[in-house]
Design brief:
- The structure is a single chain.
- The chain is of the alpha/beta class.
- The protein has one domain: Spore Coat Polysaccharide Biosynthesis Protein SpsA, Chain A (Alpha-Beta Complex), CATH 3.90.550.
- It is 43% helix and 20% strand.
- It has nine helices and nine strands.
- The chain has helices at 2-8, 25-42, 59-64, 82-90, 112-122, 142-159, 175-181, 192-202, 225-245; strands at 14-21, 45-53, 71-76, 97-101, 126-130, 137-139, 170-174, 207-211, 213-215.
- The strands form two sheets. A seven-stranded mixed β-sheet has the order 3-2-1-4-7-5-8, with helices on both faces. Strands 6-9 form a two-stranded parallel sheet.
Length: 250
């Protein structure tokens, strides 16, 4: 990727990588180490911001072992959801480019280089990982595939987004997009990604989808019946705020 970095003008940018973590003690140390290695190979000015979202295990202790000049670890006591953690983390970034990255290494941080490439080549403001990109390589459970496909059909019908996958756990933004979008965001958990992308689209920012290599690391997935209910309720609330209340226009 060092050859690409010159083409992308990466020396002119700083990338902030925000990693939300809730009970990620078995994964977080490796996630930080491999993110640092990937960014070093890229030759990019970067920082890693880990947000411990009120973990009950040793996530904070494991993360704190890696604190350096370009690794921050921030913790708050009460679990608030991935959306809250990402918003909180954004308040501590100093880069002009921001990546949201899950902590479990289902999506390896080396893929960030592809996202930077897609942003440059497409003159995009937002680049999101897509399980439905023709170049994506996927290894994850059938039930997650089923839920993902169903949710994609629902969101396309409700919001008319020209996006095939809103939920993949890796996204790249120009900071100015998040500066404008995040103050209006209310969802704190799984539909956070959708609310951000709906508002970026509403404001005219260009979003493109990039291929991902997804290697599901967990024996048991995290999505439960109550989570599906909450996602549905949050999605309905976004539709209500957007189409009926016109909340985002205020």
């Amino acid at each position: 990727m060092e050859e690409q970095s010159g083409d992308l003008g990466l020396s002119d940018h700083k990338l902030s990588i925000v990693i939300p973590a809730y009970n990620e003690a078995p994964f977080i140390s490796k996630a930080i180490s491999e993110t640092r290695e990937a960014m070093s190979n890229l030759g990019l000015n970067y920082e890693i911001v880990v947000i411990d979202d009120g973990s009950k295990d040793h996530t904070f202790e494991e993360s704190s072992k890696h604190i350096t000049g370009n690794v921050k670890v921030i913790r708050y006591e009460e679990n608030g959801g991935k959306g809250k953690a990402l918003r909180y983390g954004f308040n501590h970034v100093s880069g002009d480019l921001v990546t949201f990255l899950d902590a479990d290494l289902d999506l390896h941080p080396a893929q960030i280089s592809t996202f930077l490439d897609y942003m440059e080549k497409n003159d995009a403001d937002v680049v999101i990982g897509s399980k439905r990109h023709p170049l994506s390589k996927l290894n994850y459970p059938w039930d997650r595939k089923f839920l993902s496909s169903g949710y994609n059909m629902l969101t396309r019908a409700l919001f008319g987004l020209d996006i095939k996958d809103t939920q993949a756990g890796i996204k790249l933004f120009k900071k100015e997009v998040l500066d404008e979008v995040l103050p209006k965001i209310l969802v704190k958990r799984y539909a956070f990604d959708l609310e951000v992308l709906v508002n970026a689209d509403r404001l005219g920012y260009k979003t493109v989808e990039a291929p991902i290599d997804l290697d599901f690391q967990r024996v048991v997935g995290r999505i439960r019946l109550r989570d599906i209910t909450r996602i549905a309720m949050d999605t309905a609330a976004i539709f209500y705020r957007l189409k009926l209340l016109k909340y985002y226009d205020k």
